[in-house]
Task: inverse folding
């Protein structure tokens, strides 16, 4: 087995397992499996998009969960007025998150380091408080989404849980493929170059600001798409789901899985959500163990799960 | 506009600003000197409130409880620094954010385990529980005045400590060039621990001050922490003076926005629209301020020198 192969096999294996979950859940009569893996895959898409800017671009966004909210409210608010058409909601989710990313990114990307972390957080807080304060759309009680997005008959029916599951799966695979293509393209190399040495990239003639902003907008739109799926899956959205702690969790999933590897964030999300489910079933003080685990991971595990797996691979001949 | 209401709201804004300063001062010192992002600072604020609540019942005296809780939170700060924080100074900010995020979970869950899920109210002694008429028409709870006074005294003490003592000189030197300070023979490790404990004690004090008004509850530090971060970013990381000014500005703007924004908006739009927009806008006001300041001054109002 050559060097890259173990990780590649693992990716294929994981995706195959995801694809089989509805079958297993159906055969063994365990519908909660479908729910958990739906959630895992949707949050994975968000984590994969965060990894694009954080792992490859060095832009540590502490406000990424905001896009989940923008995506979800792009179903909720039209549905509130009786517009259920996916042809309206889906482009709205993507366009609204891309626009939010463009405007905030334009300001955020002027800053560096900790200031960047904090200003992305500030913008996410603005979105959070905006959603909380608008009583018309539920305020902090959240918004019940009456029906899932309607797709023309014959294509897919999102009201069917299994069909929604495969839509989520397809989007996840698409997102992974897109990020894979981006990071291996010229554009992706510029982004990674700007992370390592921005001055040098500018000195050799790249307008890195534009590249970084474009990357930021792509990641925002991708996460908005995840939000659209999340709203459809939950039939409900509350501002609590985009509180700043949620953005922290997303960062942790990416780091746990391994920054700067395309599939790493998916592993991180699986580990995070499964651990959360297991521990919270075990004791109401699960956050104590979970928090301690988090600290230990940061102190002792460098490079995340993907980094650990890479160590088992034989060196290239 | 009713001027008595205006004066009352200004005092309320001052009180919020003072509390924010107590939180932000420790945060900005730890940030400025150790270059460490501490999300768990809000947990120390919460610990202060819980210690004070328990001790107030045990000793039957609020003031005595505060006097004992301050060294207690100082001690908790030292323990946290030695066990966790110290190992992370050489790491990047991302690791700081994650590890202290884990600490928040540990603190919240521990408090849940020890004190239970319900909030703990703190009764005030009678002489603090009343109201005074400061000016004709301006009636203010005595306790709020005490908060403002405590904060101002603490700010003064801190100014003295940082500007006029040997320890303060080392802290300032550490903020501008820590490697050089270490090379000159200052025990930088102990200095860091001490600064962290000091920040913890001030955060704890802020928690003790607010708890009689809101009661001590789980996660009370999580939201105000973000506001404290806004304060130190606006003020310029590492600058105590910047933190003081920014804390008062943020406190005043937040309070004024919540009190008067709907009135202002009603001048420009229909009453119904104003009532919808005002709460959203006033909650966002300080973040808008921060984004605007960072846009024009990416390093805050009082950027640290020599870095």
Result:
């Amino acid at each position: 087995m050559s060097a890259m192969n173990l990780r590649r096999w693992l990716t294929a294996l994981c995706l195959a397992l995801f694809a089989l979950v509805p079958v297993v859940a159906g055969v063994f009569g365990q519908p909660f499996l479908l729910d958990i893996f739906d959630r895992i895959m949707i949050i994975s898409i968000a984590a994969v998009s965060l990894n694009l800017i954080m792992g490859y671009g060095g832009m540590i966004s502490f406000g990424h969960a905001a896009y989940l909210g923008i995506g979800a409210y792009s179903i909720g608010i039209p549905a509130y007025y009786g517009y259920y058409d996916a042809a309206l909601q889906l482009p709205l989710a993507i366009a609204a998150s891309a626009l939010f990313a463009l405007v905030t990114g334009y300001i955020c990307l002027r800053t560096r380091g900790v200031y960047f972390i904090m200003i992305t957080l500030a913008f996410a807080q603005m979105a959070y408080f905006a959603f909380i304060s608008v009583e018309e759309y539920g305020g902090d009680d959240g918004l019940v989404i009456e029906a899932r997005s309607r797709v023309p008959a014959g294509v897919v029916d999102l009201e069917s849980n299994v069909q929604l599951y495969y839509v989520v799966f397809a989007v996840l695979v698409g997102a992974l493929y897109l990020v894979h293509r981006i990071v291996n393209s010229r554009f992706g190399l510029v982004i990674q170059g700007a992370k390592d040495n921005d001055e040098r990239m500018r000195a050799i003639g790249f307008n890195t600001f534009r590249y970084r902003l474009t990357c930021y907008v792509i990641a925002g739109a991708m996460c908005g798409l995840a939000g659209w799926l999340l709203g459809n899956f939950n039939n409900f959205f509350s501002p609590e789901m985009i509180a700043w702690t949620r953005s922290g969790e997303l960062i942790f999933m990416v780091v746990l899985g391994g920054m700067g590897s395309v599939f790493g964030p998916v592993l991180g999300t699986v580990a995070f959500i499964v651990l959360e489910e297991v521990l919270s079933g075990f004791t109401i003080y699960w956050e104590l163990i979970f928090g301690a685990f988090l600290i230990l991971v940061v102190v002792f595990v460098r490079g995340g799960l993907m980094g650990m797996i890479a160590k088992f691979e034989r060196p290239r001949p | 506009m009713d001027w008595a209401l205006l004066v009352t709201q200004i005092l309320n804004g001052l009180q919020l600003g003072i509390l924010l300063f107590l939180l932000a001062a420790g945060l900005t010192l730890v940030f400025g000197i150790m270059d460490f992002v501490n999300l768990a600072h809000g947990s120390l604020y919460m610990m202060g409130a819980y210690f004070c609540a328990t001790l107030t019942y045990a000793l039957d005296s609020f003031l005595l409880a505060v006097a004992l809780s301050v060294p207690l939170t100082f001690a908790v700060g030292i323990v946290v620094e030695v066990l966790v924080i110290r190992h992370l100074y050489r790491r990047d900010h991302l690791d700081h954010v994650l590890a202290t995020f884990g600490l928040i979970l540990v603190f919240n869950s521990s408090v849940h385990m020890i004190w239970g899920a319900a909030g703990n109210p703190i009764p005030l002694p009678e002489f603090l529980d009343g109201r005074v008429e400061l000016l004709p028409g301006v009636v203010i709870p005595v306790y709020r005045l005490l908060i403002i006074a405590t904060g101002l005294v603490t700010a003064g003490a801190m100014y003295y400590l940082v500007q006029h003592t040997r320890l303060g000189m080392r802290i300032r030197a550490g903020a501008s060039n820590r490697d050089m300070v270490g090379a000159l023979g200052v025990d930088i490790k102990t200095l860091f621990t001490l600064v962290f404990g000091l920040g913890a004690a001030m955060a704890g004090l802020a928690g003790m001050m607010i708890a009689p008004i809101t009661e001590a509850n789980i996660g009370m530090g999580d939201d105000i922490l973000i506001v404290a971060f806004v304060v130190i970013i606006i003020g310029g990381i590492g600058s105590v003076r910047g933190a003081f000014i920014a804390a008062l500005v943020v406190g005043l703007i937040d309070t004024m926005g919540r009190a008067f924004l709907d009135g202002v908006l009603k001048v420009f739009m229909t009453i119904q629209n104003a009532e919808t927009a005002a709460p959203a806008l006033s909650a966002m006001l300080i973040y808008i301020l921060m984004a605007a300041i960072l846009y024009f001054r990416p390093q805050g109002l009082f950027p640290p020198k020599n870095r």
